[in-house]
Design goal:
elongated; two-stranded parallel ribbon; two-stranded parallel sheet; alpha/beta; single chain; about 90 residues; 4 strands
Length: about 90
């Protein structure tokens, strides 16, 4: 059984990609484990805009809106982190 904890809510698309990259058959996601109030949007969500994308970054106290490479950055760093643990 595999557990994946995130500080915020992740999009379903990101979780599917993490599962695929890590070759995991069964994955349990537990979000909001660190108390973050929002979510990290996918590249498509960033392109579409809207409140969560254009204003949500303020909840994280970061200086500007999310960039389109955020999804790939999260996926790449998650994959590297998990692979480092499994070595």
């Amino acid at each position: 059984m595999n557990y994946f904890y995130t500080e915020s809510r992740n999009c379903q698309e990101e979780m599917k990609e993490i599962k695929k990259r890590l070759k995991i058959d069964f994955l349990i996601l537990s979000a909001y484990t660190g108390g973050a109030p929002g979510y990290f949007p996918t590249c498509d969500a960033i392109k579409q805009g809207g409140y969560d994308v254009e204003e949500g970054y303020k909840l994280y106290h970061i200086p500007g809106p999310f960039k389109e490479n955020l999804e790939e950055l999260i996926l790449r760093e998650t994959e590297a982190f998990v692979n480092n643990i499994l070595i």
